[in-house]
Amino acid sequence: MRKNSLLPSLLLLASLTLTAACSSATPGSSGAEPGHRPAGSAPATAASGVDPARIRGLEIVTDSSEHGSCRYAASYPAVPGAEAMTAAMKRYAEQRVDTFRTGSCAGGTDAEGAKELNISYEFLVASGDVLGVRLTTQDGSAAAGGLSYTTYWYDGRDRTVRTAPDLVAGASQDVFVAALKAKLKGRPGVDAASLDAAFGDSRSRAAALDDMAFTADGGLRVAFEPGEVGVPAAGRYVVTLSKTTLTPWLSGFGKRVRQQAVTPSSHLDLGAAHTPEPPAPTESASGDDTTDCEKAKCIALTFDDGPAAPETATLLKHLARYRARATFFTVGQNVAAHPELVRAEARAGHEVGNHSWNHPDLTRLTPAQVRSQLDRTSAAVKAATGRAPTLFRPPYGAVNATVRAATTLSPVLWDVDTEDWKYRDAAKVARTVIDKAGRNDVVLLHDIHPTSVAAVPEILRTLTARGYRFVTVSHLRSSLRR
Length: 482
Hints:
single chain; alpha/beta; six-stranded mixed beta sheet; six-stranded parallel beta sheet; elongated; disordered N terminus
């Protein structure tokens, strides 16, 4: 491209950015959205009332890589009775991770350093016989900020996975699309050709309408990714249809979803066979830890990315058997899903730290986004345990002056990295800790991996026999300061 040909594009981008910023001051408004949101955040819908802790049998599926130049963290919920929907989210997450690893990461680091992929989730509705989940994907190697949203729906009455367009009756699809096009026409960056292409056939229509959710007052919010209905530089476009306009077009499924989103039932029933909830861990501390790490040989075991069911509960039993204390750096969205496990950690005398809300590289965020990531997680931990964390571990160990200035929490890195995210081998993980950990070292593990949890008994047995004591990070720090 010739150098002088950039000027018109830059002028258009500046114009569209200004228009988008002015027209989207209110969440859920029908203006275009800026291309970048705080990592893990999502537009305002009726989802704020969903408490994942009330979903019986919920598991959070998590995969991650701490590789220095190609980092990713992907998580999505597995809800009993909605196995087909879980499988659909699994396919999506695995495809995005595979593409990221084999494509984007093959070229090495970008101008800002390591490339990063983050997939997180939120519940849109989980009530009655319907379930809705939005996956948020932030691909740092993609164009236009790489931020995208996809919604997944499950009909417990028919035991069927639904798509977002299924919220609208088949006979009303054309008039529904016509209403969307009418609201989009005339906006900066939108032209008739773009709209016709976005809704021209069933496949393109389904792709364009993959992010729909009900608002708190019963309307419907429809969001479009950059480039779907307008020029990519304009970012996302959002259209909100009022309850009055929308009601005649809803399908039977859509009506049930809206009812449960606006006025949730007291429970979720997707027809799953009844399985009893596993008992909450009952381990409890026998008093304050009086270990003097100036005299004793101490090690601080730390576990990232949890809590996870059932792995964290199993780990607590291993630690209690050897009267070992540890520090758990928890991810906020997992705390919200399993507060009972975080309470059990605290009750057993362990330390609960902050590992962000959904595991982004904090150094790529603005100060406000860093605060949001950490403050939401601290609030979730305090709600579960009664105490807010004082420590945080930055995801990937990525921390800079901006991150430090955005929080009063004290950052914690590590001395020994087991790389247990790479080696799903309990014997190898145990041998790494036994061979490499020394006095007053901080050891990095993850309680989301069954193999890592399985390695802990051998670690505790061997190092206890060598005279080591296992303490929390705060205890290690305070003991060495005396």
